[in-house]
Amino acid sequence: MRFVRDNGLALFFLFIFLCSAIAESVVGRDVFNQEQLMHGDEAISYGRYLVSSHFGEAMLENWQSEWLQMFLFGLATVWLVQRGSAESKQPGEEGLQSDEKQRIGGRAPEDAPRWAKVRGWRTAVYENSFLIVMLVIFLGSWLAQSATAWTEFNDDQVQHGGSAVSWLTYLGEADFWETTMQNWQSEFLALGLMTVLTIYLRQRGSPESKPVGAPHSETGSSV
Amino acid sequence: MRGVFVVFASYMILISFGIVLYTIVGATHH
Questions:
Q1: Which residue among B8, B22, B30 sits closest to A60, beta carbon to beta carbon?
Q2: Theoretical Cys-Cys bridge with A86: which of A7, A54, A185, A221, CB 3.0 to 4.6 Å?
Q3: Which among B3, B7, B26 has CB closest to A144?
Q4: To the nearest 10°, the Cα dihedral for A131, A132, A134, A140?
Q5: Sign of torsion over alpha carbons A211, A200, A219, A132
Q6: Residues of A with CB below 8 A from B4's CB?
Q7: Are A185 and A155 in contact (CB under 8 A)?
């Protein structure tokens, strides 16, 4: 049971992700089949729906915006601060900080990750590894969204007597940008809101919050 | 730390699988 306790946070979110994704696939198939029947087409099986562009598009358009959000937050908090926010570094600490503070190269402790100790290109990669991976999975998810949405778009076009378009043409369609912006705007607003709410509001026991008694002027969380 | 790595790897596999699967699904007009 030590495994469960040590990994409670990640396992909890994995569990509720799986529950939500399954629920989404069940009701998503209902929506899809209702449309099929209205158009005089046949309903599809649950297994077939799981590998459909309808399901993929619905899931991936939300995924991409989450990774973009985390990528941008990781990047922006290097260079920008918000006085009083639990999510921010201290004003005056903007930037990449010293090797000493970041414990890299000769300043790395014995048990530091190997790539933090060696300097050169490996340290350069490792010190940006979070943003690199977030960017790659954001671009990957956005690509998957565009591919599935393209297929959905063309199906709709053909069904209504229009003609199918190429993937590149689809990237310039309002349909693609509407779903993209619809997801981006909510993520950006949520990040901004979290940044300012944590100036004045608290959650006792959460590392996302400043200690309850911390003054509003105190920046950064250190529970 | 091995258990922690298993959880980390599970997430990475899940996300990579989702991206690759649905890119193929879309690209093959499924």
A1: B22
A2: A221
A3: B26
A4: 160
A5: positive
A6: 6-7
A7: no
- Name residue, tokens 């198939």: A29
Enter the tokens of residue A65: 């915006």
Question: Which of A1, A3, A50 should one mutate to test binding to chain B, selecting the residue with the greatest count of B CBs within 10 A?
Answer: A3
How far apart (Å, rounded) are the C-alpha atoms in residues B9 and B20? 16
Does B5 touch chain A if contact means CB atoms closer than 8 Å?
no
**Average pLDDT for residues A95-121, to the nearest whole number?**
94
Could you report the per-residue pLDDT of B1-30, keeping only the tens digit for each? Answer: 889 999 999 999 999 999 999 999 999 998
With both helix axes pointing from N to C terminus, report the angle between A53-79 and A174-200 in degrees, rounded to the nearest 10.
Answer: 40
ipTM of the complex: 0.95
pTM score, two decimals? 0.94
